[in-house]
Design brief:
Keywords: NAD, Oxidoreductase. The protein is built from 13 helices and 23 strands. It is globular and about 80 Å long. By secondary structure, the protein is α/β, with parallel strands linked by helices. A seven-stranded mixed beta sheet has the order 12-15-16-11-10-18-19, sandwiched between helices. Strands 7-6-5-8-9 form a five-stranded parallel beta sheet, with helices on both faces. A three-stranded antiparallel beta sheet has the order 3-4-23, with no helix packed on it. The chain has helices at 8-19, 50-67, 72-101, 105-125, 164-175, 189-208, 225-233, 246-258, 281-293, 310-326, 345-360, 413-421, 436-442; strands at 31-34, 41-45, 133-134, 141-149, 152-156, 179-183, 218-220, 239-243, 262-266, 271-275, 303-309, 364-366, 370-371, 381-382, 385-388, 404-410, 425-426, 428-432, 452-455, 467-468, 471-472, 479-480, 489-497. It is 38% helix and 19% strand. The protein binds nicotinamide-adenine-dinucleotide (NAD). Nicotinamide-adenine-dinucleotide is lined by residues 156-161, 183, 185-186, 224-225, 228-229, 232, 243-245, 248, 251-252, 266-269, 300, 399, 401, 427, 474.
């Protein structure tokens, strides 16, 4: 079927109705949402003004004051039910992600699976918010640390993971005893409305099954960056977890620091892979293809720089170029298509600008052209581009959020490590090798400087069990698994004297 006749708005309507979203939530407003698949308008959402956003945050603070008193394993029960509701809604929500963001079907569903996975993780965590007991130098004293809820956790999310990012934050924040306020991307508010409706369903069940939960525990504020700024500046938001571009982080980080609020910043990446002489080239080809072309190059962990050893360059790069020429591009909801559209025209223009800049630096470009424009003038499909670069310069050191893979030849391992780390961003990275020395060096102190460093898999496609985030201009935040939960709580060190004397630490005397 041609992209022009898909009638995605009707399909989105039906999904939203099934998930319990009222039509009034996305009709008659000023925020226009379009499907990147066809350019078709899906809705016009009423936007919040600053005053109502402030009120929503104040109400969430009220919810926090009650929710913190609910025992953590009981809070976990709400998240368990959320996981169940997400399982029930997986097909619908996954499809809506595809319609609103343009992800291929398995990636839309995969995003919802990620939400389910983090719910499972958070349920277990709700019984494991451990503090240490610490040896004390004072007799008949006990020293321990306890972890307490923080308050309202603000969540700002980007368009490319429109719902998973909320869940990484919200599932942890809620079991940790916080309330949440979510400002989704202005490009993807429909999936946020749907997620909120699914949360409300879980909450209703939780309460009907005897659970205690306040109103306004998890709320949504719809609007652009000005609404995000209200949250960033609000004194009752002690932590903002913000996912998006480095430019956004540069604006948000200092404002939070100004009022001593905490930040989890999950910003842009410029992820690289090194292919060494011993690499399994069949595996490398598949790993590189998914990491560089998947999600049409619109993952924060997308592979953007590929360093290939001179001894395997001529074996790998022509095969990659062939894969780029033959990859199926089109409606992401049609089985077999692997590359869907860019999110919008501005994204397409940034891609073309980067390709022109690469050419000016001596880059040899294959692909990158717009396709399918005859079927849908307002949708932006591109053939992913491979650019053979003489050196790491110009656009190669920036993140362009589109499917461009810069390929560079190397000869010396230490020199390529330096180049690998020689960009401002530090999110994800990979090495393809069967040489144990190279593999171990890559994940060692002198190896990759990124938050994620992989061996024999590409840089994209993280699991929720590990902490997710990156260094340098990627912002330094960690979300999701491992002990990322600690960022959503405050730590208290408690010393309890159960004796009858009052010895002072460090032998200090103060006898009155
Ligand atoms: P964006 O920066 O344009 O917007 C992200 C969010 O920030 C939106 O909700 C937006 O309204 C909000 N925002 C922007 N400026 C703001 C401000 N001054 N104050 C408050 N809120 C503000 O990003 P995008 O185009 O939606 O997403 C793509 C970018 O996100 C890429 O750079 C990508 O690498 C990054 N990203 C990073 C991660 C990660 O985990 N590191 C994950 C996904 C996306």
């Amino acid at each position: 079927m041609s992209l022009a006749n898909l009638n995605l708005a009707a399909e989105a309507d039906a999904i939203l109705a099934r998930l319990g979203v009222e039509t009034s939530a996305y009709r008659g407003g000023s925020l226009t949402v379009r499907s990147p698949i066809s350019g078709e308008e899906l809705g016009k959402l009423p936007e919040m003004d600053a005053r109502s956003a402030e009120q929503a945050i104040d109400a969430a603070h009220g919810a926090f004051l009650e929710w913190r008193l609910v025992p953590a394993p009981k809070r976990g029960e709400l998240i368990r039910l959320l996981g169940e509701e997400l399982r029930a809604a997986k097909a619908d929500l996954g499809r809506l992600v595809s319609i609103e963001v343009g992800k291929i079907t398995s990636e839309g569903l995969g995003e919802v699976q990620e939400m389910i996975d983090i719910c499972d993780f958070a349920v277990g965590l709700s019984r494991q918010l451990y503090g240490l007991t610490i040896a004390t130098e004072r007799a008949e004293h006990r020293m321990m640390e306890t972890w307490h809820p923080l308050g309202v956790v603000g969540i700002i999310s980007a368009f490319n993971f429109p719902v998973a990012v909320w869940s990484w934050n919200a599932a942890l924040a809620l079991v940790c005893g916080n309330a949440t306020v979510w400002k989704p991307s202005e490009k993807t508010p429909l999936t946020a409305l749907a997620t909120q409706a699914i949360f409300e369903k879980a909450l209703k069940r939780y309460i009907s099954e005897g659970g205690t939960a306040p109103k306004n525990l998890s709320t949504l504020i719809i609007g652009g960056r000005d609404i995000g700024e209200v949250m960033v500046d609000h004194p009752k938001v002690p932590l903002v977890s913000a996912t998006g571009s480095t430019a956004m982080g540069r604006a948000v980080g200092p404002r939070l620091a100004q009022r001593f609020a905490r930040a989890i910043l999950e910003l842009g990446g410029n992820n690289a892979a090194i292919v060494t002489p011993t690499a399994d080239l069949d595996l490398t080809l598949r790993g590189v293809a998914f990491a560089a072309m998947g999600t049409a190059g619109q993952r924060c962990t997308t592979l953007r720089r590929l360093f290939v050893h001179e001894s395997v360059y001529d074996k790998l790069v022509p095969r990659l170029q062939k894969a780029y020429q033959s990859v199926t591009i089109g409606n992401p909801m049609v089985d077999g298509n692997l590359v869907g559209p860019l999110i919008d025209k501005a994204s397409f223009e940034r891609m073309q600008k980067a390709l022109n800049a690469a050419k000016a630096e001596g880059g040899k470009v294959t692909g990158g052209e717009r396709v399918l424009a005859d079927q849908a003038a307002d949708a932006y499909y591109v053939r992913p581009a491979i650019v053979e670069m003489p050196s790491q310069c110009g656009p190669v050191v920036e993140e362009t959020f589109a499917p461009i893979l810069y390929v560079m030849k190397y000869s010396d391992f230490d020199a390529v490590l330096e180049l690998h780390n020689g960009v401002p961003q530090g999110l994800s990275s990979s090495i393809f090798t069967n040489d144990i020395r190279e593999a171990e060096t890559f994940v060692s102190d002198r190896g990759s400087d990124c938050g994620i460093a992989n061996v024999n898999i590409g840089p994209s496609g993280a699991e929720i069990g590990g902490a997710f985030g990156g260094e340098k201009e990627t912002g330094g935040g960690r979300e999701s698994g491992s002990d990322a939960w600690k960022a959503y709580m405050r730590r208290a060190t408690n010393t309890v004297n159960y004796g009858r004397t009052l010895p002072l630490a460090q032998g200090v005397k103060f006898d009155i």
